[in-house]
Design goal:
The chain is mainly alpha-helical. Helices cover 65% and strands 6% of the residues. The two termini are 39 Å apart.
């Protein structure tokens, strides 16, 4: 009886791991066109915001526009980073429930 339970447990684990691997190999899903456009805009604005001079109004305008674009992404169910991540680790992704 214990042997059967062990075999069933082993099979369930292998099946679960196989599903995880198949999802991981599938790669990230491509966002819809509208989202892809907002992500590209956010990246461009982020570069201007972070790379601009702190005493240039264009830098501040880019930062403000980046925040508005980020709010649009959030309203469409996209999140930036995960709790506990450092800034360099953060990416936009579909929010988890």
């Amino acid at each position: 009886m214990k042997r059967n339970a062990f075999i069933l447990s082993l099979l369930a684990t292998l099946l679960f791991c196989g599903l995880c691997l198949s999802q991981a190999q599938a790669g990230p899903t491509h966002p819809p066109k509208e989202i892809a456009g907002l992500l590209a805009l956010w990246d461009k604005l982020n570069d201007r915001c972070r790379g601009g001079s702190g005493d240039d109004q264009k830098t501040w305008d880019a930062c403000d526009e980046r925040e508005r674009t980020g709010d649009q992404l959030k309203a469409r169910g996209w999140c930036y980073g995960e709790p506990g991540q450092f800034g360099y680790q953060m990416e936009w992704h579909k929010c988890k429930p």
